[in-house]
Amino acid sequence: MAAAPVAAQVATARPVALDASDGRPFAIVDKRQATLSIYDGQGHLVGRTAALLGLTPGDAEPASARGKAPSALNRQERVTPAGRFETVPGRNLNGERVVWFDYEANLAIHRLRPAPAAERRPQRLASDRLDERRITLGCVVVDPAFFDQVVLPVMGKGTGLVYILPEREPIVAGVAGQPRAAAAP
Fold first, then answer.
1. Which of 178, 152, 170, 185 is nearest to 27 (CA)?
2. Using an 8 Å Cβ cutoff, are 158 and 89 in contact?
3. Hey, where are the domains in the chain?
4. Which of 29, 36, 123, 160 has the fewest CB atoms within 10 Å, i.e. the most exposed one?
């Protein structure tokens, strides 16, 4: 497993210092590198992997996206928002296990699921080109094996935190402040 980029390492120090002390696991989504890192409740890195992110770059969820069904989102509304979110494990409408980070906006960490072949999601996830990893409605999507072997055992048992680092704002802005609750499904 490769070392995290320096900016992500610096940003990681804050959640480890402030949040790992309460025993909750946490995740860091580095949107600039399109990766997901999972940490246990003691702040130890458990795993890191490539991730698919929202189609449209940006750090804030557009107000026009609130309350819309995922299928009704237009291109500009398909953003993975930056911030500090409380997570809660749950299930989506198809009964699949996910880790919600913003239930009301339908945003979760989940495994790569079948999609139209034209979207080339497995190839995009394997790509080294970061622009290729922009395809989701705003969720953080990872390889099924990583989800089952790392995400679920660590984040799928109770509440946690996810830090989604900004891609346009300074990195520190993405980890400051109070967490937004995922809200229980």
1. 152
2. yes
3. 6-174
4. 123
Give residue for tokens 């291109």: 75
Which amino acid belongs to residue 142? V
Place of tokens 């996830």: 125
pLDDT per position as a tens digit, 108-120: 999 999 888 989 9
Mean pLDDT, residues 148-169: 93
pLDDT by residue (tens digit) across 87-112?
999 999 899 999 999 888 889 999 99
What CATH code is assigned to 6-174? 2.40.440.10
**pLDDT greater than 80 at residue 63:** no
φ and ψ at residue 149, rounded to 5 degrees: -95, -20
Token pair for 6: 């320096």
- CA atoms of 11 and 84, how far apart (whole Å): 12
Cβ neighbours for 8, distance < 8 A, ≥ 6 positions apart: 28, 30, 32, 33, 35, 37, 165, 171
Give CA angle at 63 (151, 98), nearest 5°: 15
Determine the Cα–Cα distance for residues 12 and 9; give it in Å rounded to an integer: 5
